[in-house]
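Hi, does anyone understand the following?
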Amino acid sequence: MSAIGAHKVGVRLAPFITFKDMNCPDIVPTILEAATRLQQRDIVYLHLSEADWDDAPEIPEAFRIELRKRFDNCIIVAGGYNPQSAEHVLAKHYADIVAFGRPFVSNPDLVFRFQHDKPLAELDGTTLFGGDEKGYTDYPKM
């Protein structure tokens, strides 16, 4: 980090992801220890990639509280958030930024839709990483 500076370094971690047998029984203490060490190095942010499928495990509030105790720089969360759940983690100071990845792909006007409580267009997951523009630039605005 000395070559570029901690103020330019962020780390993405994936707590509670069970996809493809990644269900590590020690993930909570591992991520909390990583957060402690990354705070000591004063990196600029932690980005938590959270499970976002229908039966995804819910991240316990105790984990969020402990993570914030250990890491007080910027925390970014992403994974299945809606305006209400985003407001909740922001209000509790569990996160500083909530990222919306897939909803932005299928809703180029996502902010407008959130602001006006409009329905979201469904993402066609079969077009992700498909090699052409289909599914990236052809979703209509409301």
